[in-house]
Amino acid sequence: MNNEKKKREERADTLKTEQTLAGILPQEVYEKEDIASFEDEIGRVAQYPFTRGRFPRGYRQKLWLKQQAFGFISAEESNKYLKFLVEKGLQELRFSPDTFNLAAVDPDHPMVQGTLGFVGIPVYSIHQMETVLNGIDLHKVYVDFNGAVTVDDALKYCMLLGVAERRGMDVKDLRGAMVNDPLHAYGFETNSTPFNFEVPWKLTLDSIEYSAEHTPHWHPVVPCGYNMSENGITCIQELAYILSIRMEYIDACIAKGVQFNKVGPGIPLEFACEIDFFETICKIRAARRMWAKISKERYHAQTVKEMTAPCSVQMAGSSMIKNQPMFNIIRLTSEAISAVLAGVQAIQLVGFDEPLAIISYDGGLINAGIEEIVAHETGIPLVVDPLGGSYYVEWLTKKIEDDAWKIIHEIEELGGFRKAIEKGHIQTQVQKSAIERQERISKKNIIKVCENEFNELAEEDIPIRTLDYANQRENINKIMNAYHQFIDGRDKKTVKEALLKLRTTARSGGNVIEPIKNAYKADATIGETAGVLNEAMGYGYDPFGMIEKPEYLKW
Fold this sequence. Notes:
Elements: H1 3-11, E1 65-70, H2 75-87, E2 92-95, H3 99-103, H4 126-132, E3 142-145, H5 152-166, E4 176-178, H6 182-187, H7 198-214, E5 218-219, H8 225-230, H9 235-255, H10 260-263, E6 269-273, H11 277-298, H12 304-307, E7 311-315, H13 328-342, E8 346-348, H14 361-376, H15 391-413, H16 417-422, H17 425-442, H18 472-489, H19 492-507, H20 513-521, H21 526-536
Parallel strand pairs: 1-2, 1-8, 2-3, 3-4, 4-5, 6-7, 7-8
Helix pairs in contact: 2-4, 5-20, 9-11, 9-15, 11-13, 11-15, 13-14, 19-20, 19-21
């Protein structure tokens, strides 16, 4: 090599890494022979095994649902922000829960003192739920509870049922979803309360059973790949775990007498939409193909609806960087494009300012712009699965599928996902993957601009506006004053009677969704319903063991 050529190569801007986010080492070029052995598995659009999508006209038939998490400061402020988002085209309302909601206690519990309104919506009774949804037509929007840990989502579902009934609405018309997934919460150790697993497990199965009968347009459990991915696992593990969890819930419901065609199609697949463009696309394509095979071979599915599942994504919070957060807008746009190319049914963009605070008004507006530009300016949604047939895309889809099957078979050999948790297998794999990912970031096998490379781009300050929490201490006092007035002004006899019915139902092993809903309509609080249920199932009233049961609830 002559000196001039050597100098040119040294000056060249080359890739910093040649690995995918999951650590896969792709070839430089893919040809037809790389997919020849499995080309017949790709299939056609809207035909088994649905690799290329379920709907023959794709987004020409219907665009994806636009989701946005919301909630901060108070129920009143959250309602203002919610109306702002709906005006900007939001279709699915994702409740961000406050700390006491995640813990399933009331706002005066010592565990959550001083935290109200900082991370989500403070909702302790049906009245706050009514305030948040004031002026929102529940016939026109989807409601989504994404507390994702222990019992919060199922309890909010019961509140929503009560709100709908108070409005005179037929609950069969409610549309939406909730994570409500204790398997991932316990397997990934994201549960924020010491509830015994049997309590959220019962709530989840009861809500699936109840929803199949009463709210057919509601998705009562959404295995949360997003939360799993944020713990540091690979896209391959995420895919395997979601499908394993889905099978666990379906099997448990079938054992309770619920038919597969009532429950199977109602459990969506929710993934993290990570920054690795092609991995995200291929993971979702593989998911459709894998679920089609599982539903047909394991559950003897007959219809297209039974062999397919709605796929949604949430942009990866872990891909957002706090240094120069305006660059996150670029990351969000790239992730949104990959989701659309993959053909998902719903998209939630996180805030570009997420590393600094809960998404702001600016973040919500920017997200609305990203989705409308991708939908109506880029031309991407015009063609179904436009990357289908790409040698690299088909090879990577198959690679992710094959590796995910290996993990699923390991879990099945352990007795299913729940048994794998009980044996510590899942926790061990999650910890191992998280450590490996961090090591790869440290070694720059994973590049994060302005974090481990190109830090000079963060030297110039680009101002942003985040939410103002300067008066939150005053807001907390207002919330607590309103809470105490509510507690003192209730008819405690009516509350006690409703909670006693919940206790009786739980102790007899009956479905608790209806009595919890009725308890909220009688002005019970989230802490009281969770406490009575927990105690009725043989555990203490307070999962933290810090407070006594109120006098009026001593039977």
